[in-house]
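Running this now, will post back.
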Amino acid sequence: MMTTPAHILITGASGGLGGALARHYAEPGRSLALWGRDEGRLDAIAAECRAAGATVTIRALDLSDSMAAVAALEEEDAARPIDLAIFAAGLGDIRAPGALVEGAEQIVRLALVDFVAPAAMAAALSARMAGRGGGGIVLVGSAAAFHALPFATGYAGSKAGLARFADALRIGVKPHGVRVTLVSPGFIDTAAAHRTPGPKPFQMQPADAAARIARAAAHGRAHAILPWPFAVLRWFDRLLPGALRDRLLLSLTPPER
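Update: finished.
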């Protein structure tokens, strides 16, 4: 079991959760490759991690260009093999005020960033890890993957696809020493979450979520749902009669922004 990875890749490192993960792993003797869209925030987080003793490189990129992200990943891994990759980048959004459904452009961008890019990168990296006999991959999904949210069809659908992909990939590469962990968090107190209206029950702080994700990765867990009440909600959704479930989900639509 891989518990002390030396070289770690974290995507979404300029965001609240990704930054917290970077800080959690930063220590002497460890190398961090931090990727994100905001180069200024990456610089600031990298400085904190270097102060903690880690060696840090940064890369600013947009995961909507999925094949460019895969090429960058292969370049990174060729330069120094990645022991653990945490794909924490993602977008969260709901339909526009007054709209019946989300726009096609929004659906495409959510699908690219929340499903296509992390899945493609995880596939490419798992093949390379299998060739050298081991490694760890963490795919950060969402508790929203368990529920058919009518106001966030693109987000819930993309995360649901990522969840099924993670499970299938885990089964396929486990015999080759590669561990794949799916993490399905609920609400995390980040700037991105603040832009989405509505209540956020059981909200976690980024540092707490990062520590839980790191533990799940270190123990090679197949699936970690954070925090535990969302595991209960998952089963509740499955057990409800269909008509009742539909009415309940429709009633959860956040207020107009």
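The chain has one domain: 7-251. More later if anyone needs it.
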